[in-house]
Here is the input.
Amino acid sequence: MSSTWTIFLILFYALSAGACLGGEVFPPYRSPMLVLTAEELAWVDAHPVIHIASDPDYAPFQFKNDAGKSVGLANDFLAIISQRLGIRFEYTLPESWAQALQLVKNHDADMVAVATETPERLDYMLFTASYVEFPDVIITRTGESVPSLEELHGKHLLTIKGFGINEFLRHNHPQIELRMAADVKTLLERISTGEANAGVLNLATTSYSIEKWKITNLHISSLTKFSYKLALASRRDWPILQRLLQKGIASISSEDRQVIYRKWVGLKTEPWRPTREQLAVFAIALTIIGFGVTLIWNRQLRKTVESRTRELRVSEDEARAARETAEQANRAKTDFLAAASHDLRQPLHAMSLRMEQLKASLQDEKAEQALVQIGNSLFALNDILNALLDISHLDAGILKSSPSHFPLTQLFTRLKNEFTPQAREYGVKLRFRSPPAWLYSDATLLYRMLANLVDNAVKHGRASGVLIGARKRGDHWRIEVWDCGRGIPVEKQQEIFGEFVQLDNPGRDRRKGLGLGLSIVQRLNQLLGHQLSLVSRSGCGSCFRLMVPGGTAMPQQNGEPLTHQERGYRLQGAVVLVVDDDPDVLSATRDLLAGWKCAVLTATSLQEAVSVTADEEIDVIIADYRLADGHTGLEVIKAMNEKAGRKSKALIITGDVTAEELSSIRDDQYPVLSKPVAPVTLRSTLHRLMVD
Here is the structure.
């Protein structure tokens, strides 16, 4: 094989490798969860630190940097795995790769991260599937050529002690006399100075090292038939560690892999930098060869490319059309649910207010029980509407994450206040274990996730007790929701995160919801970018675990506590303006407020509100957000502010608003209540406004 033709093959391989470098060894693992068995979780808790014997000289995969720390492509993979498994990796830096292997063999270290599987190593290590693969190449001085390993039979070849190719060469090319270099730099320098005629090393390390040390008189002469399939290798007496590492590798998405590959080798795949003279020779040689052997190959390649291009264009057109159709359907679904939510919440809100008035006038015990049942159905329907709207907003991308630093106790206190009455109703003992921790996340969305998990444990876990706690894992906090109920079969643990899935509700009892809670949890988890996992076994309860980044403690402002008099709902004599375009809601709100001894003015539009308050000084405004005249409750409040020459005490009641509208209301610091509003909630909110 001529030198020019060899150069052509090497350049073609390098260009091909540059296009597909880092191609996945496994298909993308798109589940947001890393599900561990109870045995694996117990093992992780018992072994929180794993010791890695690092290769000190295998750039860019793993090497010791100028600061004396272990870095490289493999370490970036391990950083992701560490976060997802809750295991901390500590690196030991021996003098050589051979010493690293010996440390694992003697159990002085637990694993290595850049190993190739060989029969000898299988005696004392277990291997994961490979996460990256690169071929070994023959390196010579510029101007010299070794087209294949066969050309080295009876000659010397420089390699590095402990590398996997040594076994390959001894078995397949015993005629080659192997000589060992201590490290990569020594190998390249000995070839550069002529002390050695040729050496063998993998393509990525060669490219990286030649560029790093600026060794200009070396080039890649040819490829070998040996490829390094790098894997994580752990001590053989710990098979469970090998399983955990395999799960960790499989959970890393193709996008994350590409980021890591581009960081370390994405810009270093060109194996050599030709001179102008070499480029001229190369161009002439390509022209000559193009009229010969490569002509047929080029024609066939052109046909293949054209065919694939046509197929790709058709696929892209079909995908674009499908995506547009799906987006239109999603927008239509979102618009429909928003409209339906608003229209349904209006009568629900009126019913809720009327029920409070009816409750005060009932004397018959059976009638009171019937009223309680009606109330339960009313709020069950409201929960269903909220779940459907949450799914719609998440799918449409309306909800956005706004992370901040906040205390864990704030989250747990809110959960305790909301779910203690419900747990008591179901006969469940609810316990909280809250360490003095700070989190960094979106407090509102994180609360909704945990609220759904706690609600699911209380209602559907069939447990006598539910525990919500947290423990520190590195720079994260792992929040756990435990129940001692019947558990979830392994084969159902992925299924429960689907929409409308209820394992304990085959009859579709509406009181148990729609089966959307865990689907919402999964979507919120994807939005927040946290790590969610589930541990459960039939008959042994369940545990949902959520890894949340730790936050920074911030100074808190503690307001003065309310006096005894302020805690009373003293609304007597307050002048209240109620603005709503629904006659039933308007009359129900007026009658309820009148029962609380308020003076009530009503209006159905902005113009009417200005008119009825012409000679009145208003204490507080209750305004529906959407009005039939095209104005909003916020505009009504602003008009009242201008009329009074001050900022009015006001609250917004709404069936549905967009994220942008809700942000605008909150910017003006007006409280927002979602229909249907419980009378006790309305009264306490009015009281807060009055005493503020």
Notes: The two ends are 90 Å apart (CA to CA). The CA atoms of residues 499 and 516 lie 5 Å apart.
